[in-house]
Amino acid sequence: MPDIAAVKAALAAQRIETPSWGYGNSGTRFKVFTRPGVPRDPYEKLDDAARVHAYTGIAPTVSLHIPWDRVDDWAALAAYAKERGLRLGAINSNTFQDDAYRLGSVCHPDPAVRRKAVGHLLDCVDIMDATGSADLKLWFADGTNYPGQDDVTARQERLAESLAEVYARLGEGQRMLLEYKLFEPAFYATDVPDWGTAYAHCLALGPKARVVVDTGHHAPGTNIEFIVALLLRAGRLGGFDFNSRFYADDDLMAGAADPFQLFRIMHEVVRNGGLEPSAGVAFMLDQCHNVEDKVPAVIRSVMNVQEATAKALLVDADALAAAQRSGDVLAAHAVLMDAYATDVRPLLRALREERGLDPDPVAAYLRSGHQERIAAERVGGDQAGWGA
Ligand code: AOS
Ligand code: ZN
Ligand code: ZN
């Protein structure tokens, strides 16, 4: 049986990064609803992220998005984060919102557009130097809408060249995390549609390039945990963009649509050593809260990942291995399901109390009056940018 003290220690050491855009207004292409009290600038986004960390104790880093997060002085923003017990996390680039990118960015047929896109990515690395961020997270909206629209192979060449230029600029301790996405906004073929394409580019680039698994970016029914296991085995899992998907890239709260899938993913993470800091896996949320208050929704999401992790840590690894070795299919499956069926909430409540936290982070946040305070104080909140 798993040692409960070790399970608690692993849970206490876990870190989950929250996205700056999750604190802003967001929506779908039909409507962006504004919520009272949303941040008006990156500083206020950090204030909200600090609340999430204060109540969960495991969310000390915040992903930024360039240019949705704009400041004159990045070092000052990093210092502001530090004063609040936070650090700035992954820098997310944006090569999809300029008119120039109609036919793509780093894969665009026109070298001038590719130059512009690569220039932006290099600027993002400059920002990482100033913020102390280790990861450049790349998601490309590049692709084609119609068969024959562009040469698929030529686009891969352009992608490889562009990535190589950015890779060469990475400093000591900096990494490139390449995200894949099956479709949207390109509908015929995206240029990085799947983990295999992302992995092939990362392999060609070198050890600082790794794949990001966004849980919303697959075809229905895809076995995501299998991808996770393969990437961990290859030492190329750079991190996760956790969110829930009912139908497409819904970006709803992690663990809301399919908590069992989240558990299966975390089981592969635990089984393959992905929770160890040396594995270098960044556990990030990539979510937007369209119709609910942002801060409690982020807290809930962090807790959902934490609960899935706790269940994964409770898998009796010895019993599982024994059942697998003996070919006892039902026993092996039962070991996994026993862990999944365990109510880990008492364990997590106890862990929080031991660490001086309120056992119920959402309730504690709602009691704190923060939501009412920001609703009264902040007028004209910032839009996240786009339903990411
Ligand atoms: C887009 O669909 C991807 O999920 C991106 O990771 C992300 O939403 C964007 O980069 C936000 O910055
Ligand atoms: Zn993502
Ligand atoms: Zn996405």
Account of the 3D structure:
The model has no long low-confidence stretch (mean pLDDT 97). This protein has an eight-stranded parallel beta sheet, with helices on one face. Strands 2-3 form a two-stranded antiparallel sheet. Helix content is 45%, strand content 12%. The longest helix has 21 residues. It is an alpha/beta fold. Helix 4 links the parallel strand 5 and strand 6. It has 14 helices and twelve strands. The structure holds D-allose (AOS) and zinc ion (2 copies). D-allose binds next to loops.
Q: How many structurally independent domains?
A: 1
**Rg from Cα:** 21 Å
Query: What is the CATH C level class, in words?
Result: Alpha Beta
Shape from CA axes? globular
Strand order, sheet with most strands:
1-4-5-6-8-10-11-12
Task: Count the E strands.
Answer: 12
- Distance from N terminus to C terminus (CA atoms, Å) equals 41 Å
Following the backbone from N to C, one meets helices and strands in this order, namely: HEEEHEHEHEEHEEHEHEHEHHHHHH
